[in-house]
Amino acid sequence: MKERIGGIVFFGSLFWLAFVFLFYAGLFVNYIEHHGIPIFFNQFFVDSQFWWIWPAGILLFGFVFMMEGRTALKVAVFSLSFLAALSTWVPSVGSAVGYGLFSKEGVDYRFNRVVVKGATLLYSGRGYDYVKVPGKEPTLRYPTANRVR
User: Fold this and answer.
1) Facing residues of 45 across strands?
2) Cα(first)–Cα(last) distance of the chain, in Å?
């Protein structure tokens, strides 16, 4: 029994990490780099995880891997999962998924006497918001503390 649980956790972790890495690598290329957000992949990978999903993903992939027989089901589950993860490598899909996960429209920022209204928050991490302001081309970095709630 201990070997089975160990196998579920080990192989589930292996396949889940591969799935998540491929998914976020596609988002990084087609969303973060596309918008010129100056962060590294490791920072993006760690800061933007939905950690509460990890136990369920590890158990799901582990149970599927450790099932006896049912090879066709295993192949189907892993193939569909990795096709879903690889779909973020398609520029339009990766951009749309990144926009859906990380962006927020109509965010305002206050700097002393100046208020910037109607910015699009593209990504927020480590104390900074990366935003697009109407009429400005590059992605701007604003401190999160200046965001008007």
Assistant:
1) none
2) 51
pLDDT tens-digit series, residues 86-121: 999 999 999 999 999 999 999 999 998 899 999 999
Domains and CATH numbers, the chain: 2-100 (no CATH), 103-148 (2.30.30)
Which residue ranges of the chain lie beneath pLDDT 70?
Answer: none
Contact between 119 and 131 (Cβ < 8 Å): yes
Beta carbons within 10 angstroms of residue 133's beta carbon: 17
CA distance 139 to 6: 45
CA pair distance 135, 70, nearest whole angstrom: 56
116 three-class SS: strand
Q: What is the pTM of this model?
A: 0.90
SS3 2: helix
Q: In the structure encoding, which two tokens stand for residue 16, read together?
A: 């889940």
